[in-house]
Amino acid sequence: MTYAKSGWTALADSTRRTIFDLLVERPWSVGELAHRLPVSRPAVSQHLKVLKDAGLVVDRPAGKQRIYRVDPAGLTALRAELDLFWSKTLAAYKVAAEQPSEEL
Amino acid sequence: MTYAKSGWTALADSTRRTIFDLLVERPWSVGELAHRLPVSRPAVSQHLKVLKDAGLVVDRPAGKQRIYRVDPAGLTALRAELDLFWSKTLAAYKVAAEQPSEEL
DNA sequence: TCTTCGCGTAAGTCATGACTTACGCGTAAG
DNA sequence: CTTACGCGTAAGTCATGACTTACGCGAAGA
Question: How many domains does chain B have?
Answer without folding.
Answer: 1
